[in-house]
């Protein structure tokens, strides 16, 4: 995609399909190499494809992001990645808006993220949180999850190397 096309072609945000997974992984990999996102195995992306939206421009996947439900009122925004050629053009904002709408459609009232991109999320109403955002009873239930992202949300010791430097942020919808 040329720079001119990137500036003028419309972006469509839609639910991800299995045929998008390899392109999603390619988008995510540069962020993994820079230690901004955790790496995901291809099988993990296929298993979670229903959680993802993609941004598409001229038939090319230029962004992806996921919404993972943690509890009845709480979800996590995960794995937002945008192609370098469209950074600064609002692609990430459009995907986050779509993920927030999905959260509302599911009945969620709070969204969590663990991020280095505090300015981006701050512009969308997310605020830093230091305290635990769930009750001790729900914390105990979430401990039973096998999902590594849930363990990051809970700030468990065994995931600390993956979360160093990240900021915990929360938004009330």
3D structure, described in words:
The protein contains 8 helices and 7 strands, in the order αβααβββαβαβαααβ. The protein is of the alpha+beta class and 173 residues long. The model has no long low-confidence stretch (mean pLDDT 87). The radius of gyration is 16 Å and the shape is globular. It has helices at 3-8, 21-33, 42-47, 91-106, 118-122, 136-142, 148-153, 160-163; strands spanning 11-15, 52-57, 60-71, 74-82, 110-115, 127-128, 167-172.
* Uncertain residue segments: none
Report the average pLDDT across residues. Answer: 87
Please state how the strands of the largest beta sheet are arranged side by side. Answer: 1-2-3-4-5-7-6
Global geometry: globular
**What level of helicity do the residues show?**
25-40%
The topology string of helices and strands comes to HEHHEEEHEHEHHHE
Regarding quaternary structure, what we see is single chain
Q: Proportion of β residues?
A: 25-35%
- Largest sheet geometry: 7 strands, mixed
Radius of gyration of CA atoms, rounded to a whole number: 16 Å
Beta-strand segment tally: 7
In whole angstroms, how far apart are the ends?
Answer: 35 Å
The number of distinct helices, counting runs of at least 4 residues, comes to: 8
Structural class: alpha+beta
List the helices and strands and how they pair.
Elements: H1 3-8, E1 11-15, H2 21-33, H3 42-47, E2 52-57, E3 60-71, E4 74-82, H4 91-106, E5 110-115, H5 118-122, E6 127-128, H6 136-142, H7 148-153, H8 160-163, E7 167-172
Parallel strand pairs: 4-5
Antiparallel strand pairs: 1-2, 2-3, 3-4, 5-7, 6-7
């Amino acid at each position: 995609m040329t720079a001119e096309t990137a500036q003028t072609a419309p972006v469509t945000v839609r639910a991800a399909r299995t045929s998008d997974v390899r392109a999603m992984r390619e988008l995510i990999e540069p962020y993994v190499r820079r230690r901004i996102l955790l790496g995901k195995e291809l099988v993990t992306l296929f298993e979670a494809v229903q959680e993802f939206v993609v941004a598409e421009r001229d038939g090319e996947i230029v962004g992806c992001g996921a919404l993972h439900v943690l509890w009845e009122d709480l979800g996590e925004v995960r794995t937002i990645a945008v192609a370098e050629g469209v950074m600064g053009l609002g692609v990430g904002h459009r995907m986050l808006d779509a993920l927030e709408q999905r959260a509302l459609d599911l009945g969620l009232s709070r969204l969590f993220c663990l991020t280095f991109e505090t300015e981006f999320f701050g512009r969308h109403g997310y605020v830093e949180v230091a305290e635990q955002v769930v009750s001790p009873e729900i914390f105990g239930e979430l401990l039973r999850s096998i999902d590594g992202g849930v363990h990051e949300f809970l700030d468990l010791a065994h995931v600390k190397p993956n979360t160093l430097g990240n900021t915990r942020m929360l938004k009330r919808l």
